[in-house]
Amino acid sequence: MSSAAPISxxxxxxTTTPHSTVPPARxxxxxxxxxxxxxxxxxxxxxxAVDSGAPTHAWLFTGPPGSGRSNAARAFAAALNCESQGCxxxxxxxxxxxxxxxxxxxxxTENVSYRIDDVRQLIxxxxxxxxxxxxxxxxxxxxxRMTERATNVLLKAIEEPxxxxxxxxxxxxxxxxxxxxxxxxxxxxxRIPPTEAVAELLVRRDGLSAERARFAARVSQNHIGVxxxxxxxxxxxxxxxxxxALPLKVRSASEAIVAAARLVTMAQADAAAESDAxxxxxxxxxxxxxxxxxxxxxxxxLRAQFKRLEDEASRRAKRAVTDSLDRTLIDxxxxxxxxxxxxxxxxxxxxxxxxxxxxxxxxxxxxxxxxLACLDALxxxxxxxxxxxxxxxxxxxxxxQLIPRRPRG
Length: 409
Prior knowledge:
By secondary structure, the chain is α/β, with parallel strands linked by helices.
């Protein structure tokens, strides 16, 4: 089994009032569930569990990338412990947001899979009492990255959980988790939120104009985190626009090689920028939870907590490049979906509506079969970059396949 980086511990925290008396604002527009837009049924399901006082001991949160499954898991963990009705702003909630809540752990791996020792460590943590809080909550991101051996180690802990312990596993789909695990978990299924819901969140939370928010929501394909970044970071928008323009320009092998190198360079720059921004956010949040001013010197006794954040950021670096390349391939996939939409005259709004004229030109140069072949090539590349294929080689192979070719005959 490949070794995994040490798992990281973070947290999130808050609670809510009985479902029958919860005002509309509580169900997804404020407090800990504020960012779960377009997930009304999920919010109600989680709210009911919190209000019951006796939630199921094991949960499985599933949904495609961008659906907010990790955010939902954190919000649920927060709601289980918060004493101020899911305020999102009390001391306990701030501890959770900063990743330093003593009773809530958010664990993830930056590598291909979890080590068995990591899982055993989680089981040991689960045995601890919640130390003055209602529940000890352990949120496991990327539960699909557990090997069968690691999952079997976890199984007994889920079958016979300690009192006051709640497990929350996150995965893209139920099929990504062994049946022995998912049969013992209560399932929560999230969906990609609608464009208008994501845009409304960006306007309300980040103060963006309606036009910019809707553009970001559409081109991010309703991924809240990506949408926010595109809306607020001009460099990210520029890199994204350059990415989707590349296949519109590539017409020869030499241009394909140059384009591939450019894709890798942009992915590396994007990963570095995102990693730096995330670290800055985590440090700022930790400062707030510890009562430190932004410019105040960190006392020696607290430096270990900040060093932990820096170490985790360093471990994330390699995977960040892979994730950035994957996002790049998703953006390119949207280009060829748009091309097919134009080719087949569906009349639907394009993801890259602002590039309709250029997409129409590419649609003229490709047959529907060729566009589908390009989509297949993109899917193959997404698999390759997770299998230790050198990024430059994977991108070169891809761009060569995206060169428009004259239809036979």
